[in-house]
Design brief:
By secondary structure, this protein is of the alpha+beta class. Helices cover 13% and strands 30% of the residues. It contains five helices and 16 strands. The strands form four sheets. The protein has a four-stranded antiparallel beta sheet with strand order 1-2-4-3, with no helix packed on it. A four-stranded antiparallel beta sheet has the order 5-6-7-8, with no helix packed on it. It has a four-stranded antiparallel beta sheet with strand order 9-10-11-12, with no helix packed on it. Strand 1 and strand 2 form a beta hairpin. It is globular, with a radius of gyration of 21 Å. The protein starts with a strand and ends in a 9-residue tail after the last strand.
Length: 328
């Protein structure tokens, strides 16, 4: 038996019972445009075009043109100063045309935007039993199980919430840091408990940060890492572990990261996305598109790979990462 947690709304736990492959019927092959959309677009725009980290694609207000030609061009060449990348180096014109036709056709006959949660999901390899644990969360991102009764959840809009005995605590944690949400993927991201949490109470939080106006879409911003403690629904003793100067922040960025991992030595790994600046992922003097490794207090391990490299950020552990949102 395996327990899976799905970060969705409502929060759902799935218990999977492994069965053999025999007798499981594969899904009918989808048309090429739909299949390409699922492979390349659904992660950002939603499996049913309902929007996810990027804008929904079933709409009437097409800012950059709603005709087939405009959609085709936007997919092929991207949209400057937005998170929409150019796909002409990945997909052929024929493939882009197929995706465009799928999007255009969906305007008339859209896929179901909301489907009821099934009691069971059958795949070729196993059957999943679905149990709704709680509802009322708004875009949950990270979860940490503190003990058998309690779990702490981060919400993208900038809240930390307790789940107690499978019930959402109506009172959010007070005094948490303000976050920048003017980017479609910005806000609160992952949380982690210190390996010695029962003794020291440290909780680690990643969030989109700016020193400018939180409502200004042109404010320079980047992912920030802090830790703090929760006492009686109050965030306290906050310490900054990683923050870059304004000169290294990004204007109008997208793809922030961020996931946490403590290794067996107690070192903390965290990820920051490329913020839409793909080539900066190779620049050791910039924070975007990297995996970082620090000690729990924010200090730098002396065996980090670029700690002695002139001009490099010493916390860098790996480079060339687009937007790591899973780490193990």
């Amino acid at each position: 038996m395996r327990l899976f947690w799905i970060c969705c709304l409502p929060l759902v736990f799935i218990t999977g019972f492994l069965y053999g492959q025999e007798g499981a019927a594969p899904e009918a092959a989808a048309p090429e445009g739909e299949q390409l959309y699922k492979s390349y677009c659904a992660g950002c725009h939603g499996a049913r075009l309902e929007g996810n980290s990027a804008t929904k694609l079933i709409k009437t207000d097409w800012t950059y043109g709603r005709g087939r030609g405009a959609i085709f061009r936007n997919i092929k060449f991207g949209i400057p100063s937005t998170e929409m990348a150019a796909w002409h180096t990945v997909l052929s014109d024929e493939q882009i045309g197929a995706v465009t036709d799928f999007i255009v056709a969906a305007q008339e006959t859209p896929p179901d935007a909301v489907r009821p949660i099934p009691a069971q999901i059958t795949t070729q390899d196993y059957t999943l039993k679905v149990e709704v644990v709680t509802e009322g969360l708004h875009t949950p991102w990270g979860i940490e199980f503190v003990d058998e009764r309690r779990a702490l959840v981060s919400e993208k809009e900038g809240k930390l919430r307790w789940l107690v005995n499978d019930t959402l605590d109506p009172q959010p944690i007070q005094g948490v840091p303000a976050t920048y949400t003017q980017s479609s993927t910005g806000g609160y991201m992952d949380i982690a408990l210190d390996p010695a949490y029962p003794d020291n109470g440290w909780i680690y939080l990643a969030f989109s940060h700016t020193n400018g106006d939180l409502q200004d879409k042109k404010a320079p911003a980047l992912t920030k890492i802090v830790r703090g403690k929760i006492k009686d629904h109050q965030w306290t003793e906050e310490q900054t572990l990683f923050e870059v100067p304004d000169s290294l922040m990004v204007v109008n960025g997208n793809r922030w990261g961020c996931r946490f991992l403590f290794d067996t030595k107690g070192l903390l790994y965290f990820t920051i996305g490329d913020m839409g600046k793909d080539m900066d992922s190779q620049d050791l003097g910039k924070a975007t598109g990297k995996v970082f490794r620090i000690r729990p207090d924010g200090s730098i391990p002396q065996d980090n790979p670029f700690v002695d490299t002139a001009g490099a950020l010493p916390a860098i552990f790996s480079v060339g990462n687009r937007n790591v949102q899973g780490i193990a």
